[in-house]
Design a protein that fits this description.
The complex is a heterodimer. By secondary structure, chain A is α+β, with helices and mostly antiparallel strands. Chain A has 9 helices and 25 strands. Chain A folds into 2 domains: 227 residues, Rossmann fold; 114 residues, OB fold (Dihydrolipoamide Acetyltransferase, E2P), CATH 2.40.50.140. Chain B is globular. The mean pLDDT of chain B is 87. Classes of the chains: A alpha+beta, B mainly alpha. Chains A and B meet through helix 3 of A and helix 8 and helix 9 of B.
């Protein structure tokens, strides 16, 4: 168990990177707290697997250092770093039994036989494979194989960190919940530092204490699920987290008012006069529908009933605005305006969130 | 559900049947024909039953040739399979170097058997051959036309040179199909190089290796041209393998009946060994799967 520090870390797969687009990972400084469970969330190709492989030592970074606690491990091999990693697709040793598969990392480190047997037994119980221990791994189903991979990752107790690279992709939905719950229980019990890479926001939000959102080779926000939901630090976070994502509108902001195409929208705090490309963002959960009066003029395009609630898709001069209405609520056919909850409106300048000057939100 | 029955479908099989008849079945049947008949010339044949077969089974000459043949096949398999695997593992995995390696490795496979024989025949000569001359010059008594061991060594080295590439290329294809995550997981599990080979590479290669062994067995068991060109079966009978012996019998001595019986048994042995090998390998696979 260790605190993991990334110091000026950056990586490019090209031998001589030139522009920013050549860097898979842009320079970053980040500390992964000891014993915390992180989810590394981002769209495919944003560099999250690269980052994970750099931490585990499978990829050597182009620049910067990695420290486990205060020891520089940048030059160390994967084995020397003593970490465990579970991959997206199951890796099992086909020709040996499930038991030998689980024992493999321990035996390679010359653990005593008695200890190996006990660990294997308890891990088998955890992944629910006690009765298949003596079978060859070859004929098993994909999710059984992935459970073995997970088990092999967890069999060592003294690892510095447990890394998961989208490990539940091939697993059945009901099994996903179960395994995720078990991973969480394991985390509570042993307090390993865990980093869990995923592009599934539900998975990230349910697994982790802290979610690290990556976009285009950069960490754009680190926060609890609530923070990501309420105050996305970057428009990507707003868009990527939530279903549907945050509504974004080009606006002019002056103090505690925003003007979108001539319509004035009240804000929850004084934002001054931000420069650059200014946008306001509001989550569909905080959009209310009305047929008259104030608010942004829109045309209703369609309503999607997703079971627990309705997603109302509106159009404001070519920009889509989504609202969430309660399942029982009536969506007026002559819907013409939407209003935003002032406190829930965030202001962005060049995609980054602008902090309010004075806030009455925190006080509320 | 009733399956529709249409006997006209047999017509679709007919072209293949005709082709295979002319290329395989009819020639084989003429051999069968010779093997159960005897002749005193003038193209007059009479039925002799299984006499030729029992004669051949009682003949030391055939058993000796068979023993030499089995020894030859086992020796080249024992060298070519491990060597091919080692070569495949050490080949570059991608890029220009990999392409260059692949082309270089394929070259021996493209050379006609006769030419391979001639190359080694000259290469091994003590008067003008680079290999033979050099070995002689450093004091090794090497002469494939005189020495038993020299002749065998030449044949084996020649076969290894000619065919190890095949095993290596097949093994390389097997290795290329292993996802990178396996090697990464092995690193994380702190597996030794041997463990990586034993538990990842070998299992993933087992399919192609079965094919490689099968191909090399069948081919080496039938080998004729190269030893014929290099040693002609000598010195004495030292390198008279089954095919060479068969040709001597059929065309040299014109013993058609014996040669026919010999051919059929030769064919059956290859068929039997290949079938047994293949069945055993696929059953091992299935048993593991359960």
């Amino acid at each position: 168990m260790a605190k993991i520090t990334l110091d000026n870390l950056a990586h490019s797969y090209l031998p001589a990177p030139k522009g920013p687009e050549d860097w898979a990972l842009k320079e970053m400084n980040h500390v992964w707290g000891d014993g915390e469970a992180y989810a590394l969330l981002g769209a495919s190709g944003c560099g999250k697997s690269t980052l994970l492989n750099i931490i585990s030592g499978l990829v050597h970074p182009s620049q910067g250092r990695i420290l486990f606690d205060d020891q520089d491990v940048t030059a160390q091999t994967t084995a020397a770093r003593n970490i465990a990693q579970v991959f997206q697709f199951p890796v099992v040793y086909d020709t040996i039994t499930v038991r030998d598969n689980l024992a493999f990392p321990l035996r390679n480190r010359r653990a005593p036989a008695q200890y190996v047997a006990e660990r294997v037994q308890s891990i088998a119980q955890m992944i629910g494979m006690e009765d298949t221990l003596d079978r060859k791994a070859r004929g098993l189903t994909a999710d059984a194989k992935q459970k073995i991979s997970l088990g092999r990752g967890m069999v060592r107790e003294d690892v510095n960190a447990l890394l998961f690279d989208e490990p539940l992709t091939v697993i059945d939905p009901h099994m996903k919940w179960e395994l995720r719950t078990q991973l969480k229980a394991l985390h509570h019990e042993f307090g390993h530092t865990m980093i869990y890479v995923t592009h599934d926001q539900t998975e990230a939000l349910t697994f982790a204490d802290k979610v690290v959102v990556m976009h285009d080779g950069r960490v754009v926000q680190v926060g609890t699920p609530e923070e990501l939901f309420e105050r996305p630090a970057h428009t990507f976070v707003g868009y990527f987290i939530g279903s549907p994502g945050m509504n974004l509108l080009d606006a002019q902001v002056e103090g505690d008012r925003a003007i979108v195409d001539g319509t004035e929208i009240p804000l929850g705090a004084d934002y001054g006069r931000p420069g650059g490309r200014v946008q306001i963002g509001v989550r569909p959960e905080f959009v209310s529908l009305s047929t008259s009066g104030a608010g942004l003029p829109v045309r209703l395009s369609r309503v999607e009933d997703v079971g627990r609630h309705k997603v109302v898709r509106c159009d404001h001069e070519g920009t889509q605005i989504n609202a969430i209405a309660a399942e029982g609520a009536e969506v007026p056919a002559d819907l013409s305006r939407v209003e935003f909850v002032p406190d829930a409106v965030n202001v962005y300048s060049d995609d980054w969130r602008v902090a309010p000057k004075t806030s009455n939100r925190e006080a509320a | 559900m009733d399956k529709p029955v249409n006997q006209k479908a047999w017509l679709l099989v007919l072209p293949v049947l005709v082709l295979v008849s002319f290329s395989a079945i009819i020639p084989l049947m003429t051999v069968v024909n010779y093997s159960v008949q005897d002749t005193f010339g003038q193209n007059q044949f009479f039925w002799s039953g299984l006499t030729w077969f029992s004669d051949m089974l009682a003949s030391d000459r055939m058993w000796d040739a068979l023993a030499r043949q089995v020894a030859f096949s086992l020796i080249i398999l024992a060298i070519e399979v491990p060597l091919g695997i080692i070569v495949a593992i050490n080949m570059p995995k991608s890029g220009v170097k990999a392409s260059v390696c692949l082309v270089l490795m394929s070259l021996p496979l493209l050379i006609p058997w006769n030419v391979v024989g001639t190359i080694w025949q000259i290469f091994g000569r003590t008067d003008i051959g680079l290999l033979g001359y050099t070995l002689d010059a450093v004091g090794i008594d090497f002469n494939y036309t005189q020495g038993f061991y020299s002749a065998w060594a030449t044949l084996i080295v020649m076969d290894v040179w000619h065919w190890t590439s095949l095993v290596a290329l097949l093994a390389y294809a097997g290795l290329q199909s292993i996802p990178g995550a396996y090697y990464q997981a092995a690193k994380i599990d702190q597996a030794s190089r041997w463990a990586v080979f034993r538990y990842i590479e070998l299992p993933k290669m087992s399919g192609v290796l079965t094919i490689a062994i099968l191909l090399r067995f069948m081919d080496s068991f039938k080998i004729y041209t190269e030893p014929f060109v290099v040693t002609g079966g000598g010195p004495g009978n030292a390198t008279t393998l089954l095919s060479i012996d068969l040709v001597k019998m059929a065309l040299g001595q014109f013993d058609l009946g014996k040669a026919g019986a010999f051919s059929i048994m030769y064919f059956l042995v290859i068929l039997l060994v290949s079938w047994v090998f293949y069945t055993v390998m696929t059953n091992l696979d299935k048993r593991d799967g359960r």
